[in-house]
Structures are given as structure tokens and as C-alpha cells.
């Protein structure tokens, strides 16, 4: 059986997810926060109204440098859906900004693809 | 935490698809510069049944793991690899994964050739350039790339190459082949 792929039986992550998000789920997800969206911490200190959880703090620690939503989820070992909710909180509080690194993906130029090939050859 | 990223200014996204056990997790891990990480996507599915008659919408939550890897090509240029979920139940996740992807590798286990049909159909319909990586498993009959091309009814321009997902070098070659194909596909547009 595909035990390592299927976590359905493990209530743990789901219960934890519910707890972290206060039960907020998909409907609260920010659909603009796709897996490749870059997250970066706002440089100036902000004094927002958000009560920061350890997970919010952990995201802010990571986001000193831009990183993707997927990386945040991986680093914190949280479901992407949960991370989206948490990022949404931080966005509302203007503690982070997000931007989509879409230029390559959507309008790849020959030059960038050549650069990727050269980069792979040099690995 | 060893997942501190470099400046991910330009992100290139590539998918690794194929049936269950075809080597997706192995391939992503073989080239990723960080400990193999998996992101979990929390899913909310509507269950259709008796409840609907009562106007009650019941939701069940499951968690599915995705493979995720990163290769920094230079400062400001990062390649991300995403393994696709192998199960049919998670087709709807593919749209998000495929969004913004440059191309895909479809891994084929020749002992279970049919397992990759769905992935091929999906990428063809979406118009996403893909190549076929034929994983060499012990005990599998040796096939030539041409045999595979015929069996999968592939267009002649789609590269079919043998690979070993466990090998970083082999995986690197697969990715280089894919990018070459992406380039050709772009030129044709
Ligand atoms: N002989 C051989 N075994 C492989 C290769 N790629 C993966 N495997 C093995 O096949 C099994 C399934 O691989 P996995 O990456 O988990 O497949 P996935 O379900 O597509 O993610 C693992 O035990 C791997 O070690 C390969 O290229 N050659
Ligand atoms: Mg796997």
C-alpha cells in the first residue's frame, strides 16, 4: 500500500491544521498565494493588530529572504492550505508582501531557457 | 532548518509525473539541493450522498503529500521540481501544479506502461511540453525508446530517454533534455 503517500489515516496533521487556523479552511485560502508565489518580510517593523502565533513568527523568520509558498510549507512541515491561511493573516497585517515570480514561467524567453540549460550543465 | 532559500527571483517550475512507483519521489530527491521535502496539500472534498438531500454539505479533509525539490542554478535563478500526486483522486491539484510550469517529465515504468497514460493525456491537452523518462527497473524487459514511443503513441518530436531516477547525473540529463525540448516547442509557436 502506498503508506508514505497517503496520510488520510493520520488524524494528527489535520487536527493540528484545524487548531492552527482556528478552523478556517479552504474558503479563507488566498487563491493568489499559489505554490510559487514569493513571500518576503516587510522591512520596516509593523505594529499590526495580529496576535502572532509561533507559526506566524516562524514564517517571518524564514521570510527575511524571499521564498516560495511551497518552501514555507515544507520548512514548517505544514499543509499548504494552512500556510495560505497564516500568510493571509500576515498579509492583512502588512507584515509580509507577496509577488509572483511569473515572468519566467509565463513568458519564458529563449535566453532564460538557455541559462537554465547552462546552469544544469554546470551542476 | 536546511531549507533557507537563495534569492528566488526567477523561478522555473518543472513537474515530474508518472504512475505510482515510477520513481517521481526518487527523481526529485536525486537532484534537489536540500533534504527531500514534501509539501502537504490540505484538501476539502464535498461528499455527495444522503446528506445532500437534507441540504447538509459535509466536508471531509484529507492530506496528500507532494514531492518538492529545489536547484539553485545561479543567484536569482532557481529551478523547482514538483512531483505530481500519482492518484487519480487528486487530478484537481494538477491544475495548480501545472500553472506556470515550463515543462514536465513523465516517468515510465515499463512493467506498468499504462500507468502513465493519464499524465500524457493531461499534458497533451494542456499543451505543456513534456518528455518521457523510461526508468530502468531490475527485472523489466529492455525496451528501446522507439518501442516505448510506439506503445505510447507519441508524436515523433517528443524525446524518449532511458534514465535512472536514483542517479543525480541521469536526472540532470533528463532535465537538460526537457529544457531542450521546451526550447524547440517555443520556437515552433
Ligand atoms: N531500479 C530502479 N529503481 C528505482 C528507480 N527509480 C525509483 N526506483 C525505486 O522504485 C521505488 C519507487 O520509487 P518512488 O520514487 O517512490 O516512486 P513514486 O511513487 O513515483 O514517487 C523506490 O523503491 C525506488 O528506490 C530507478 O530508476 N531504477
Ligand atoms: Mg512518491
Structure explained in plain terms:
The complex is a heterodimer of chains A (123) and B (189). With 123 residues, chain A is mainly alpha-helical. Chain A has one domain. Chain A has six helices and three strands, in the order H-E-H-E-H-H-E-H-H. Chain A has a three-stranded antiparallel beta sheet. In chain A, helix 3 (69-76) crosses helix 4. Chain A is elongated and about 45 Å long. Chain A starts with 10 loop residues before the first helix and ends with a helix. The model of chain A is unreliable at 1-14 (pLDDT under 50). Chain B has 189 residues and is an alpha/beta fold. Chain B has a single domain, classed as Rossmann fold, CATH 3.40.50.300. In chain B, 31% of the residues lie in helices and 32% in strands. Chain B has helices spanning 24-31, 50-53, 91-98, 117-126, 145-152, 168-188, and strands at residues 10-18, 37-47, 58-74, 77-83, 103-109, 130-135, 160-163. In chain B, strands 2-3-4-1-5-6-7 form a seven-stranded mixed beta sheet, sandwiched between helices. In chain B, helix 1 (24-31) packs across helix 6. Chain B is globular and about 40 Å long. The termini of chain B are far apart. Mean pLDDT of chain B is 83; it is low at 1-8 and 46-57. The interface between A and B is large, with 49 and 55 residues. The structure holds guanosine-5'-diphosphate and magnesium ion. Guanosine-5'-diphosphate binds at residues 18, 20-26, 86, 135-138, 164-166 of chain B. Residues 24-25, 67, 83 of chain B line the site of magnesium ion.
Kindly summarize this structure in a few lines.
The complex is a heterodimer of chains A (123) and B (189). With 123 residues, chain A is mostly helical.
